[in-house]
Amino acid sequence: MIIGNRRGDLDILHEILASLEKGQGTTNLRYIANLNHPQFQRYILFLKRTHCVEVEMRGRRIHLIRRTPKGTRILRRVNELLEDLLSEDER
After folding, report:
1. Where are the domains of the chain?
2. Scanning 15, 18, 23, 88, which has its CA 20 to 30 A from the CA of 33?
3. What is the pTM of this model?
């Protein structure tokens, strides 16, 4: 969150991708990202559709969510962007 009190989509996507270092179950990830179930489903579906995460299923339920190499690249770029925006050295 850079400006204001509310999180935007990019903040939430960043938080989800950053939390997936070694994979997470859905409950832990929902708590970390502070999302309700419908919100969580929308973000995970978007990340899956864009090949940023892979989802391991057990039956009809999500068992584990992992970050893909593309998700790792995007996370790295967002981190670099945030560092540049927030750095005070380059005035």
Report:
1. 9-81
2. 88
3. 0.85
